[in-house]
Please model this.
Amino acid sequence: MRLVIRPRLFWLFLAVLAAPVAGPTLVLAGDRPAARFDSDAVALTLVAEAPGADGSIRAALAIDLAPGWKTYWRDPGEAGIAPTVDLSGSSNAVVDSLSFPAPHRFGDDYASSNGYSGPMAIALRLRRDPAGADTVLRAKIFIGVCRDICIPVAADLTAVSAEADAGAVAAAFDALPESHDPAQGILGAALSADRTLLTVTATTGGAERPDLFVAGPEGWAFGVPTATEADNGRMAFTLPVLSKPRRAGPAPPPLDIVMTSAEGAVEARSVIPGAGP
Model:
């Protein structure tokens, strides 16, 4: 989890953390896990499809924001709280992947953030031993939601797979960015020698309002890109490196890159950046 708080909200956030559990701003689930958690700011629901014959399971964490509230992508940008979904306590289920819908950019005079301002869902792929015990999903969730101030939301949710949840799960997967075509979309990335800048080369196909979002391993964070026209109809997006691990090794980090436009979104996963100037 990466926690970034805007300077002018720092003391308000400390007050939230120090508030009693019964207070109006600290939002915590009760002691008894359930598949759904509700607050004035957000509702969280954990749903799962029935397992496939091969033991694969698709599930989703639906995040239904109240009007005016926002939450954050896996890299929240210059300010925000990266979401955490821990399913390690599940019975007979191992997580293969967590996937997010394409974010958009929002902010104020102090900082720019990556996230969502309406209902969204995190899509989950899991697997189980078909010959093992019944599968029960147990998720420890921590997210941040913001309006005038940022509020941390913590919940423990439990769900079993059910055919009745198939529609909600399918909607979560349908909302994900498309996998990029190697001939179009995201072409490659390069990290500067001093590791302060990341440049991503892409083809936009003439799409309007292109934007780019990058998420890396724990400790890596990237800022707002500057887009410039390159050769052969390509665009170069240059992003500042906001943070990196203190003990980052010489190997470049694998990056997940999402390019958005008025026409939709594409994603390239585990992109290994080359060496830049």
In short: The radius of gyration is 20 Å. The chain has two domains: 3-174, 178-275.
